[in-house]
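Inputs:
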Amino acid sequence: MLRIFKKSLLTGVVTSRYPAVPEQAAVGFRGKPELDSKRCNACGACVQACPSGAIRVEEASCSGDDRGNYRLELSLDYCVFCGACAEACSPGAIVLGREFELAARDRADLQLGMWINKSTDGKDAGLAVNKAVRESAESQRERGEQGEQGE
Amino acid sequence: MSKVSKAEYKQAETVASNLDGAGELDGAGMASKAGRWERMKRVLAKSVHIRHVDAGSCNGCDWEMNHLLNPIYDIQRLGFDFVASPRHADFLMVTGGVTRNLEAALRKTYAATPEPRVVVAVGSCACSGGVFQDSYALAGGVDKILPVQVYIPGCPPRPQALIHGLMLALDKAGC
C-alpha cells in the first residue's frame, strides 16, 4: 500500500487545466481546414475529393463585377476533417490546421467561405491556370456542338 | 364573482409563468430565448447533469465523451456529470445522425427530459448527417428531429472540443 502512495505522490496531477488554460493540439492533429485565397485556382479537386460533399466551388456570377470570381464554401458541419481536400489540392490552398474549438450555436456559424478573386492583369497565378482550363473546356464544348450539328 | 383588476390579473399571470416556466406563456420574458437562457444559467450555475443518447453513431464520438470522465479531462471538476436517466438530466448530448431505429427512442428521451434542457449535437453526423447525409436510414442530423442549441463539429471532436462546446452552451466560453 505504501508503494501505491509513493507512486501517486511521484506521479502528481495529470489533469489538464483546459479551459482555464488554453491548449494547442499536437502537430498533425486534423483540425479546421485553413483556406488560402492567394493560392487557390478554383480547380475543384477538393470538391471531388471530399467524402461528405462539404466543399462547394461556384462561379460568382456570369456578368457584372463578380464575373470571373469564384467562391469556395466549406461547411464544417459536414466536414469529417479527413484531409482529403488538403491532399488533393496541388497549389496547397487548403491546409488542415490544428484548431479544434469549433462549437457554435447556429449552423450558419459553421460555414467557411473564401473568395477567389481575379486580377485584371493576370498576375494571380492561380486563376491564370484556371483560365486556360476554362478556355480549353469551352472550346471543347464548341467543337462538340459543331460535331452534333454536323450529324 | 369578484372583479379582478387588470393589474392584479397581470401580476397573477407573471407569477404563474414563473411557476411552471413552460416557456410558452408570454410573461416576464420567459418565452424569449434570452429569458430562457437567463433562467437556465440561474438554475444550472452550480452543476449540469448530462444524458448521452447514441442515435446510431459509429461510437467514435461516444468514446471521446467517455474520455471526458477520465482523470486527464475530468469534467466533474467543471460541474458536469453524466446521468443514467433523461429524467435527471439538464443536457442531452446526442451522437450519431439519427437512424430510423433510434428516432422514436430519441423523441421519447427528449420528452422525458425536464425543462430547462439543452440539446447538444456531437460530431459531424449529429450536426448534419456527415458522410451519411444521403442515406435512407438516417434522418440527416439531430436538428431534423429535435431543436439543437449547440453544434460541436468534429469526427470525432476531441475532448477539449467537447468541453468548449459544453462551456459555450453555458455561456462561459470565451467566444
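Residues 119-129 of chain A have pLDDT under 50 and may be disordered. Flag for discussion at group meeting.
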